[in-house]
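Side project, low priority. Logging it here so it doesn't get lost.
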Amino acid sequence: MESNRALLALSALSQATRSAVVRLLVEHEPDGLAVGEIARRLGVPPNTLSSHLGILARAGLITPERRGRSIVHRARIDGIRSLADFLLGDCCRAHPEALDVEPTASPRSSRSRSSAGLDHPYDVLFLCADDTARSIFAESLLRALGGDRFVAHSAGGRAKREVDPIAIRVLEKAGHPTEGLRSKSWDEFTGPDAPVMDFVFTLCDSVAGEARPVLPGHPITAHWGIADPAAEATDVEKETAFVAAFRRLENRVSAFAALPIADLDATALAERLREIGRLDGATTHIGTK
């Protein structure tokens, strides 16, 4: 990538909304998203979003595609990779030692795994707005269903001090231990001593569409949207909704824990994760017709 082209791309990504658009579209490759859906997820007026999309397209980071009567926007993975190559290769050519990544410097990206066994378990982070119910459910479920193959975590952008008491009751009735469960800020997973994630799953549409902190490593991401059970009006309706959310997440986590991760290439794994996100109860069905 030429320097001028790289500067154009970096300038485009320096604005928060445009950065969020690229992250959102990368997450939804290869299906892409329509303008209206991008605007809804990011909470940006469509006319303002159109301007951002034009800047990103001119920078070679996204591209529009016509599908029937609709225009769908997709991330340009080739353009993003070219920018990464420029930053990590061309810019650092004078100091190649900067690119010499040892296992101690990037433990997760250099792990070796085989189908016969894991040198380390996979670290999995479930994200939701408050980290008080859905992400807590998923964390507890993966602890129970994943065995020693996974280490489960949860966090939120607006984390609260306590887990929703209804969520605690649902977990206890299902026979899951609740000791140690707490609502956590996703900032806990950005520091130098934070565990390096292999997978990051968003469980609510608002978090999937907003800008999130950069996590160490290069986790595989997917959106498994589940409706917010706390949004129901009455206590009885909330109890029913919490149980339904738990069961839907149980189906997803069970399917994920059963995947032969070490035997799947990146494309196949990403598709399997998207399929899991489309299971019954999904708030969005990206890629379905």
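Brief comment: The chain has two domains: 3-78, 118-277.
Revisit when time allows.
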